Amino acid sequence: MKRLLSFLLVLALAACSQAPSEPAAPATPAEPAAPTAEPAAAPAAEAAAPTDAAPAAPAEGENAEAPAADAAAAAEAGTDAPVAELPAMPDPAKAPREGTDYVVLAEPQPTYTTGPGIEVAEVFAYTCIHCANLQPTLDAWKPNLASDVRFVYVPAAFGGPGDNFARGFFAAEAMGILEKTHNATFDAFFVQRKFQTASPEEVADHYASLGADRDTFLSTMQSFAVTAKLNRARQFALRTGVQATPTVIIAGKYSASMTGDRGPAGLVETIDWLVQKERAEAARR
């Protein structure tokens, strides 16, 4: 028994560290009178034509003015249209400590999940006491998240018996019981101390005690689909440089950790500040 308890203690500690007109013809000298009478009549006839046609000009002018008036109104309306306000940058006075509370990843990485908004991914382990202590703060914080933020859990897969808990997480997710079992698994490990070896069978027994069908759960834990998810979680942690739990990756760019002086509340404040920074910078790109 002492050997088993020592094994679980080592397991818990390991989990927490890890874009142009022609000119007029000249008058004829032999006939001076003829040009006097006929030219007078010609202008009169010519003058009549413009008089008859004159009423049509204003109508044509009115039709031409209508589109111009419409264009002017449209331009005026466009000038008065409200301009969308950009999200505010976070308060520098409340900035977390770069290098202590968070680090900027050397290269932005693909997020764990795909979709709109800003991803906040917690890499955690059921065998990590700091993750267990953080969970109540996360439970109080998550319901108030903005609609453009998506929070996801990423179980740590650092190898060894701890991977069986990660498989248990994915099996519970696949079977639709994760909401019921997540906090209960922290409790089973640290409070009830139900696990001796953390074998797949022992993990399945735990979930069966929470209402899952044991055989179905064990089979799901060992399925190809769960193994694929386990490998994806492992690759995400490796790409983002996760070395310990809990570690929170924001937008694939920032890695935030819980510190001894600020605790769970400080970590959540760091996450909020980085989310606001990412939102404001994205709107300005």
Automatic annotation (TrEMBL):
GO molecular function annotation: oxidoreductase activity
GO cellular component: periplasmic space
Disordered: region residues: 21-79
Pfam families linked to this entry: DSBA (PF01323)
Taxonomic superkingdom: Bacteria
Subcellular location: Periplasm
Signal peptide: 1-19
Thioredoxin domain location: 75-276
InterPro entries recorded: DSBA-like_thioredoxin_dom (IPR001853), DsbA/DsbL (IPR023205), Thiol_disulfide_DsbA (IPR050824), Thioredoxin-like_sf (IPR036249), Thioredoxin_domain (IPR013766)
Keywords: Disulfide bond, Periplasm, Redox-active center, Signal
Similarity comment text for this entry: Belongs to the thioredoxin family. DsbA subfamily.
The protein's name in its UniProt record: Thiol:disulfide interchange protein DsbA
Species in which this protein is naturally found: Arenimonas metalli CF5-1
Classification lineage: Bacteria, Pseudomonadati, Pseudomonadota, Gammaproteobacteria, Lysobacterales
